[in-house]
Design a protein that fits this description.
five-stranded parallel β-sheet; four-stranded mixed β-sheet
Length: 420
């Protein structure tokens, strides 16, 4: 075990010597001195890279010898028991005994692969001078599990694929948009379409469309097998694949369990509604797809109305779609949903008394409510009138101000305001 640790430390130190920091993320880790920092998100969204960026910054004030980084996706560390995990940490202190008297920084990637990791983490957090950082694939290291296992000792940060601003930062060669005149706006809208088409997973940003589609489909396959099937011991792979494909293929649309149940039965699947509800929970926990409820004072009304569907990434949606151009409106709506999630909004949709729909009724971190109607193209007067009529009705009924978000509004007003 000691030789393995020295090998891993040498590899890590070599990596950090050549690490340049990469693309800055707009997400910031919630760093509280007396809490364990937990990073949660779907695979391949950049959790590991965020840890390395944190270490890169830390090295300005802390020597490498006070930092332990272990990635439990490494086959040399799999499988690993809690006892073996504790032994690795003890070996770190044996190798650097001066660390007993100073604060050390422990980074554990994909910690859910260690059996009994919770007890080990609690013990070292309570008995050593340490700052601990954990990451894990969302379906195996959820915030509710962390809260149960670490009993208030941790604070979690969600990591999402690149936002549009991060997508722009990743482009080569980089373009400068300073004046936001017509030329800049036209170029930005072209980039926005590219972002909606290819999505924001860091690995796929610069890939050609064929390779991008292949990689994104592989992402879904890995999530299905490692974060859903293995964890919940699902045996009907065809069923879970069909449910996932249905969900991510209908972003921006209403969803009802009864409709999916009837669809599955027509496809020859023997399934209960309870199973469908369970699968929906697994899929949402794995950060693949999400449902948004109706905003209403009555809980019964919220529960009996359709929920709306959104996905982790529009590029991933396109990897399963037949025609991208026909779905620009829904993809743009999905983008707004993700931007609201990134900024920790509580999200609903709203139906007026005349059953007109407003895409988002959302509460921000300060407790303020907002109405957002999203439209990719308002050139048609009837379309514009329909969107504004719903928004005005909702404003009057709820006593809130609303905003119609078009691509121009998004680029010049909504996105800058959201980023603060």
């Amino acid at each position: 075990m000691g030789f393995l640790l020295r090998t891993l430390l040498q590899e890590f130190q070599d990596k950090m010597q050549s690490f340049t920091g990469g693309i800055p993320r707009t997400v910031a880790l919630t760093n509280i001195s007396d809490k364990i920092t937990v990073v949660i998100g779907m695979r391949r969204t950049g959790k590991t890279y965020l840890l390395l960026q944190t270490i890169h910054t830390l090295l300005e004030i802390v020597p490498l010898t006070r930092i332990l980084y272990l990635n439990f996706e490494d086959d040399r560390l799999f499988p690993m028991t809690g006892q073996e995990f504790a032994s690795l940490i003890d070996q770190f202190y044996t190798l650097y005994p001066e660390n007993y008297d100073v604060t050390c920084y422990l980074f554990f990637d994909e910690i859910q692969n260690v059996e009994g990791w919770e007890r080990v983490i609690r013990r070292y957090f309570d008995t050593k001078k340490v700052k601990i950082y954990l990451t894990g694939s969302s379906a195996k290291l959820l915030s509710k599990e962390i809260a149960t296992s670490l009993r208030g000792r941790s604070v979690a940060t969600e990591v999402w694929p690149f936002s549009f601003t991060e997508f722009l930062s990743a482009q080569e060669p980089k373009e400068s948009f300073t004046m936001l005149g017509k030329k800049d706006l036209d170029q930005l809208k072209k980039q926005l379409v590219s972002y909606l088409e290819h999505g924001g997973f860091p690995e796929t940003v610069m890939l050609n469309p064929i390779n991008c589609t292949r990689v994104l489909q592989d992402y879904v396959a890995v999530v299905i097998f490692r974060d859903i099937v293995e964890r919940y011991k699902i045996t009907n792979l065809a069923l879970i694949r069909y449910v996932i494909k249905t969900l991510i293929g209908n972003v921006g649309c209403g969803f009802a369990v009864n409709k999916l149940f009837n669809d599955l039965k027509s496809q020859g699947f023997a399934v209960s509604k309870t199973t469908i509800h369970d699968y929906l929970e697994y899929i949402e926990d794995a950060y693949l797809a999400f449902t948004v409820p109706l905003y209403a004072e009555s809980i019964r009304k919220t529960q009996t109305n359709l929920r709306k569907l959104y996905a982790i990434d529009t590029g991933l949606v396109n990897a399963y779609a037949m025609n991208f151009s026909k779905n620009l409106g829904h993809h743009f709506e999905n983008l707004i949903y993700l931007d609201l999630k990134r900024t920790n909004h509580e999200i609903y949709y709203y139906l007026t008394k005349t059953r007109r729909e407003v895409d988002f009724c959302a509460k921000d971190r300060q407790g303020n409510w907002h109405l957002y109607q999203v439209s990719w193209n308002t050139d048609d007067p009837q379309t514009l009138d329909r969107e504004l009529t719903a928004l005005r009705e909702a404003e009057n009924e709820l006593g809130l101000s609303g905003q119609l978000i078009t691509p121009d509004v998004y680029l010049t007003s909504f996105l800058p305001k959201l980023l603060g």
